[in-house]
Design a protein that fits this description.
44% helix, Jelly Rolls, 281 residues
């Protein structure tokens, strides 16, 4: 990737409008490809035409292909070059998205942290094109939140009819959603099973059973993975020294943080930072 600059923290352009809609090819300024970005909201990209492009999400490069819809989660570090790309882009307030999602989603893995992508089949393209045009017209004309919400509900319902690419299906369970929200909120300060089990009124054993069945990880693994992801973001994309990063992430000693990082990545934090710099060119 091109950028040697630090991650830019991004909030929605207008906090009063929970859903924003743009055409990628008409809004290159929104996707300044000299930077990596970390967003505090959900993003939905429908890539309609691409030309030998890639995007980077949390240190992993993914090829962009035409007629794919990608969901980028809040907190993920994202980069792509919008030149030679056309398509639609939605920015959606996090709380707003969660509320609609758990009204409408039944059997899809929206709770996963991994990138989620769908194939827009030929038979479904007219429907998604029509929905996108309705959202675009409402956003640029009256911006009625209740109308945009209805269109987003329909979009999420129909996303569930599309093939999911490289993503297994999981059952959306209110307890799973609550647990993953709690992990996101407290993974630095709370690392004991009992804290999370108590919050969802389950035994530790039962909590881990439903987590393993739904997302394939125990709570310990979930916390460890989330902590490592944040460590990689801070080490790879910030200029903070390693000792400060270990303190930010709740480690009592930088030596303990170094051991944790190397055990899971097989490289030291400093070596990882150098690798990221080389990849960025």
């Amino acid at each position: 990737m091109k950028s040697k600059k630090q991650v830019v923290q991004v909030q929605q352009l207008d906090k009063n409008i929970p859903i924003e809609f743009f055409r990628i090819e008409d809004n290159f300024d929104l996707f300044d490809f000299s930077q990596h970005y970390q967003f505090d909201f959900y993003q939905i990209f429908w890539f309609i035409e691409v030309s030998d492009q890639q995007q980077e999400i949390d240190f992993i490069a993914y090829p962009l292909e035409a007629q794919q819809i990608w969901i980028i989660y809040p907190g993920q570090v994202h980069y792509f070059d919008p030149t030679a790309v056309s398509g639609y882009y939605l920015a959606i307030d996090k709380d707003y998205f969660h509320r609609i999602l758990f009204q409408e989603a039944k059997q899809q893995g929206f709770t996963e942290n991994a990138p989620l992508k769908f194939e827009v089949t030929a038979s479904m393209r007219p429907l998604f094109e029509h929905l996108s045009l309705l959202i675009e017209q409402e956003f640029h004309d009256q911006q009625r939140a209740n109308v945009l919400e209805k269109y987003l509900e329909l979009l999420i319902l129909h996303l569930q009819d599309l093939p999911v690419l490289q993503q297994r299906h999981v059952t959306i369970d209110a307890r799973i959603h609550k647990l993953l929200e709690l992990v996101e909120l407290h993974y630095i300060s709370e690392r004991k099973n009992e804290f999370y089990a108590d919050k969802v009124a389950l035994s530790v054993k039962r909590m881990n059973e439903i987590l393993l069945r739904s997302v394939g990880k125990s709570l310990k693994q979930q916390l460890q993975d989330r902590l490592l992801l944040e460590a990689k973001r801070l080490v790879g994309y910030s200029t903070d020294n390693i000792q400060d990063i270990s303190h930010i992430l709740g480690f009592s000693d930088v030596t303990y943080f170094n051991r944790f990082f190397k055990k899971l990545t097989l490289v030291t934090p400093l070596d990882f930072r150098e690798q990221v710099k080389k990849v960025q060119g």
